[in-house]
Design goal:
Distance between the termini: 37 Å
Helix content: 25-40%
Radius of gyration: 22 Å
Order of helices and strands: EEHHHEHEEHEHEEEHEEEEEHH
Number of strands: 14
Strand content: 15-25%
Largest sheet: 6 strands, mixed
Number of helices: 9
Length: about 375
């Protein structure tokens, strides 16, 4: 999940699974000003480079990682690995990034902890310094090209609304699209939110999206920030820019192993305050928001400095994922949700012709 900073750029979410700092599916990046694009050309590193990168990683962990005790343990672990020469044979920059990531995640099981190599040198940026206009323009272009995460919006047979999200992009671009989608689906009899390919994004946009699904302000997932030693309460808003969907109709949320970070944030909140039924697979298990840190000219590290706290469970989904109400393979989740919704419709439908049509659709799906 991203973290807003006062009057500054937003902190960025790490990627779906290990192996990339790319944020939220395929559109945003944890370092938006340095889009990798094509695969990076590798470079040779020596023992001195490895030690410098590891020392910088340890320093950032000590200062900002959400769990100070785990940061201290990682410090001891990495220094022991250095002393035993475990990084001496690493001569590839890409291999150094992946080896260090594996080491960081091995004991913490924190999929947001990640190091990435960049072929293009990363300029230094002072703490709190805002991104350049060019950096902001590049991020906005990426979001625009992928429609701010909205992959598909439509109506399924039986008057069921359907929204497929691949990310929760910045509110500046997402607000109008959320309003448009909810206006299009405002009169549907049920709603399916497909997060099976949703990799993360901005928690402010998650709150905005969720605000359409309730009739009144509702407590979602809070976030505890280590650096400020405070817990930020997160509620849906009393008003929304478009047409509110409300709480009277059923909502089903589709999940997969690839559902991650901010997308899990939405699924976890909707499940635990009983607003939605989750169908699919247990999600990826990344509940720690944070930001990227420059380690050297060619290495960047994502360090989580916050953790989610749900007001119902008093915990989060870190390392365990969000468990669906109905467990089925992700590929079958949409059909399963449709069938469940349509069977409820059939049970109360008084229009014989429409009821027969619904029954035929159920039979086709089954």
């Amino acid at each position: 999940m991203d973290r807003p900073r006062k009057n500054k750029t937003l902190r960025i979410v790490a990627a779906t699974g290990a192996g990339a700092l790319c944020a939220v599916g395929f559109a945003l990046f944890a370092m938006p000003q340095h889009d990798q694009g094509p695969p990076q050309n590798d470079m040779t590193v020596d023992k001195g480079v490895s030690e410098a990168v590891i020392q910088a990683a340890v320093s950032n962990l000590r200062q900002t990682y959400v769990y100070p005790d785990k940061a201290a343990a990682l410090d001891r672990q990495l220094h022991a690995q250095l002393q035993h020469g475990e990084f001496d044979s690493v001569t590839s920059a890409k291999a150094l990034a992946s080896t260090l990531t594996e080491s960081l995640q091995r004991d913490t099981h924190d999929k947001h902890l990640e190091v990435q190599y960049f072929e293009k040198p990363l300029p230094e940026q002072a703490p709190g310094e805002d991104d350049s206009p060019a950096d902001k323009a590049a991020e906005q272009l990426k979001e625009h090209r992928f429609n701010y995460g909205f992959a598909n919006v439509g109506r399924l047979h039986g008057d069921i609304g359907y929204i497929e999200m691949h990310q929760f992009a910045r509110p500046q671009g997402s607000t109008e699209r959320i309003a448009a989608a909810m206006t299009l689906l405002a009169d549907t009899n049920a709603l399916i939110i497909d997060l099976r390919k949703c990799g993360g994004g901005d928690p402010e946009t998650v709150m905005l999206f969720a605000s359409y699904l309730y009739d009144k302000p509702t407590h979602l997932n809070d976030i505890y920030w280590r650096d400020e030693q405070r817990t930020e309460q997160r509620w849906t808003t009393a008003t929304v820019p478009g047409r509110r969907y409300g709480q009277a109709r059923q909502i089903y949320v589709l999940t997969s192993q690839d559902t991650f970070s901010a997308c899990e944030d939405l699924a976890y909140a909707l499940k635990n305050n009983s607003r939605a039924t989750l169908v699919g697979e247990t999600t990826g298990g990344g509940a720690h928001p944070g930001k990227p840190h420059r380690l050297s000219a060619h290495f960047m590290m994502f360090v989580p400095d916050g953790r989610a706290i749900n007001p119902v469970t008093h915990t989060d989904w870190e390392g365990v994922g969000v468990v669906p109400n109905v467990s089925v393979p992700a590929a079958k989740a949409l059909d399963t949700a449709q069938i469940a919704i349509l069977k409820r419709f059939v049970a109360t439908e008084t229009d014989t012709e429409w009821k027969v049509g619904l029954e035929h659709t159920i039979a086709d799906l089954e």
